[in-house]
Design goal:
Elements: E1 20-23, E2 28-31, E3 34-35, H1 36-39, H2 45-54, H3 60-73, H4 78-90, H5 93-107, H6 116-142, H7 155-164, H8 170-182, H9 190-199, H10 205-216, H11 224-237, H12 242-251, H13 269-285, H14 289-305, H15 311-321, H16 329-350
Helix pairs in contact: 2-16, 3-6, 4-5, 4-6, 5-6, 5-10, 6-7, 6-16, 7-8, 8-13, 8-16, 9-10, 9-16, 10-16, 11-15, 12-14, 13-14, 13-15
The structure holds acetyl coenzyme *A and oxaloacetate ion.
Acetyl coenzyme *A binds near residues 8, 189, 221, 258 and 312.
Length: about 375
């Protein structure tokens, strides 16, 4: 029996990892030893996925080969193709992804193989397929057809192309690529932990990813980015009184979406980049209302609660200005985090032990069993 109970496993070290590291006091984040500030804006998402899954930043040749593997891997299987229209009609985006990734597991050529090599191949396919699943889902529900991926564009550019139906501006591609880089991995966040718990039973890669998608969906985790935008939209529709709206929410005991973090005690280093990209896109769009509202919200929440924005806060307006539909914000998060989740499953399988914590029993004890006819 463990001697200490920590609600929400706060401050409990639940795994060892060589993938990412956070200094919550200093507000620093590292992927495999590289400072996020050195990676953001300088590396593509494909380089980061390779870094997480293979351990080093790729050479040009390795990146070329990895790009070819991703291009081959993005073809969807027969089961996914068959069920996609129904799923798009009946399920909300994150539910749909949970279903479609589960179906992709049945289609996967390595489905019965948990070896390191098979896991790496599955990881590349999952990274390649996730943006396609989101785009195809969106096309199916809107009755359109997603444009074919353009071999000149990477994952970021092709995603914007397929979602908006237009060839994206080069700067928009750079910005979105940076967003994907910033969301790729984040130590023992809830969805990654869920993936590792599943993988630690020696279950397969796709099962672990389905667990992760279901976990990312929640509003206290990845689902917050969509809620941020909905909050901004609602405040704008009611006259744009940000300070008043925030104070009313706090007075009602509501949480302000996009603020606070379990680990950071200062600014989330990803928010620093996202704020700047939001500002740039807002100014270029000719309507910076949502950016200005976000700045004001940040000031009020800090003054009232001492809380900082997390990764979900400015990601919302960045995606909005890039023309991504609001209900696809959390799916976009999953497009990036797929690189981290899959790397964590590889890492878990490579040095496994069942994850099975203890619980503190708070129920009644010593109750007497009573036959069913004598119960009241
Ligand atoms: C990618 C991501 O997952 S980033 C996080 C995305 N989630 C959100 O943005 C949702 C809003 N934020 C939150 O709910 C929390 O800050 C979490 C879930 C991120 C972290 O939760 P925890 O570490 O468990 O902190 P907890 O919820 O206990 O908060 C500590 C205190 O700060 C308050 N607080 C924390 N976040 C907020 C917030 N966003 N708005 C208002 N108050 C907040 C809590 O009410 C609590 O106050 P109390 O001690 O007076 O009860
Ligand atoms: O680490 C966390 O708890 C949440 C988070 O910021 C992430 O998953 O990116």
């Amino acid at each position: 029996m463990a001697d200490k109970f920590s609600k929400g496993l706060a401050d409990v070290v639940a795994a060892s990892t060589a993938l990412s590291d956070i200094d919550g006091k200093a507000g620093r984040l590292f992927y495999r030893g590289y400072d996020i500030h050195d990676l953001a804006g300088r590396t593509t998402f494909e380089e980061i996925a390779y870094l997480l899954q293979c351990g080093t930043l790729p050479t040009r040749r390795q990146l070329q080969e990895y790009g070819e593997e991703l291009a081959r891997g993005r073809t969807l299987g027969a089961l996914v193709e068959r069920h996609l229209p129904d799923v798009a009609e009946r399920q909300a985006p994150m539910e749909a992804l949970r279903t479609l990734v589960s179906l992709a597991g049945a289609d996967d050529p390595d489905k019965d193989d948990n070896s390191l090599e098979a896991n790496r191949r599955k990881a590349a396919r999952l990274v390649a397929q996730q943006p396609i699943l989101v785009a195809r889902y969106h096309a199916a529900r809107t009755g359109g057809k997603a444009p074919d991926p353009d071999p000149e564009l990477g994952i970021a550019g092709n995603f914007l192309l397929q979602i908006t139906g237009r060839r994206p501006e080069p700067r928009h591609v750079e910005i979105f690529d940076t967003c994907l880089v910033l969301h790729a991995d984040h130590t023992m966040n809830a969805s990654t932990f869920a993936a590792r718990v599943c993988a630690a039973t020696l279950s397969d890669m796709h099962s672990a990813i389905v667990a992760a998608i279901g976990t990312l969906k929640g509003p206290l985790h990845g689902g917050a980015n969509e809620r941020v935008m909905r909050t901004l939209e609602a405040i704008r529709a009611e006259g744009g009184k940000v300070a008043e709206a925030v104070r009313a929410k706090l007075a009602a005991g509501e949480k302000i979406m996009g603020f606070g973090h379990r680990v950071y005690r200062t600014e989330d280093p990803r928010a620093t980049h996202l704020r700047e990209m939001s500002r740039e896109l807002a100014e270029a769009s000719g309507d910076d209302t949502y950016y200005r509202m976000s700045r004001e919200m940040e000031e009020v929440v800090h003054a009232e609660k001492g809380l900082y924005p997390n990764v979900d806060f400015y990601a919302a307006t960045v995606y909005h200005y890039l023309g991504i539909p609001t209900d696809l914000f959390t799916p976009v998060f999953s497009v990036s985090r797929m690189s981290g989740w899959t790397a964590h499953v590889i890492e878990q399988h490579a040095d496994n032990r069942l994850i099975r914590p203890d619980s503190e029993y708070v129920g009644e004890r010593d109750r007497k069993w009573v036959p069913i006819d004598e119960r009241e």
